[in-house]
Amino acid sequence: MLVKKYVQQFRKIWWESDTHLPQFGRTYSKRDKSSREACLEKLVNSIKSEQEQSPFGGEVNSETQKKYFSALRNFFKSALDFEDDYLDTILSPAFIESTKAFIKMSRYFDHSLSMNDIFQASRNVWIMNGLQQLLGVPVELTPAVFAYSMLYPYSDNYLDNPGISKQNKNIFNKHLSQRLAGKAIIPDNAHEQQIFNLIAMIEEQYDRSSNPQIFESLLAIHHAQMKSLRLFDHKVSLSEEDVLMISIEKGGASVLADGYLVAGSLSEPQRKFLFGYGAYLQLLDDLQDVQEDCDTGLLTVFSRASKHFPLDTLTNRTFHFGKQVMNFVNCFNGKNSDSFLNLIKKSIVLLIIEAVGLTDGFYSKSYSRQIETYSPFRFYVLKKRRYSLSPFRISLMRSLHQGH
Length: 404
Fold this sequence. Notes:
Blueprint: H1 2-16, H2 30-53, H3 62-80, H4 84-90, H5 93-109, H6 115-135, H7 143-160, H8 166-180, H9 190-205, H10 212-228, H11 240-263, H12 268-288, H13 290-296, H14 301-305, H15 312-326, H16 337-358, H17 365-372, H18 379-386, H19 390-402
Helix pairs in contact: 1-11, 1-15, 2-3, 4-16, 5-6, 6-7, 6-11, 6-16, 6-19, 7-9, 8-9, 8-10, 10-11, 11-12, 12-15, 15-16
């Protein structure tokens, strides 16, 4: 009932959000962009240099780790104008140690996981670490943080895989629902066994009888994932409203579960913000993945609309929706929570600009030119360097794993 209520509330906020071009903040001249692009080139070259000196499988020492984080900090500060207190938060020893512990535990849990899989899962660890800071609990890798973050490579990717039959997905969903509800289910295969092991980790940290809301939140995200399977089913006719509500529910329920697994309990204002923030993150992901979703046939607010008109107005609405969500954020009192909230606001702007820059073929030329003035980089440089930075993820994950 709580999830249904929030879906309706944020659906209303979405339709009431402004569609005019936002004021993203400062603009960048050609000279500004050139200096920031030089910072980007420096980062890319430092990655290449490290890879040549330490090929995959080689040892990564503490000095190499220091170089990574120094290069990363300089890039965020010089190229993206991140404040020192933002960087002190995301590059703090606690955040780094949590990531190291997650990588080590992931490899131990399943040796077959690729570093790309681990990187994907680690993004949820970072969200949960940020929520730990907001909620005033220690920033660390708990069993629940590990288990919930690992559920994504196992369950979400499985359900999103168009190569797996609908019948097999339905069987899997039924078993997972029963296991999340606390029933003793014998797993059908090794894949299910791994997922059930992750649920058991959460049960070890949180007793079901005294923390029912935690397991209700896990069931809520699972039910939202099941609904999202309709986004792949082209035999089912979904309206714009249907697609929007599925996206809001899936994103909102996901981060609501993050919050419960971090804190155990949440106040009403905290629940509302976390649900809205999750919905916004889902919409941002869909905006950034519009090309891929169009290619694979996944229906989202943006892939659906892109068949009919440019995404200018929808992107404006997404930004203003995010600003509305941030109006509900004054419900946290963790240490340095203000710095983390300012970091979120800064990231919102950058992610919208990046989405337009990387998929500018989905926008009118005039809109793309306007947004580019707010970008620290020229859009063609963004697209050129998009895949150059992909190896950095692998190198960073390897560095953290070997240097634990």
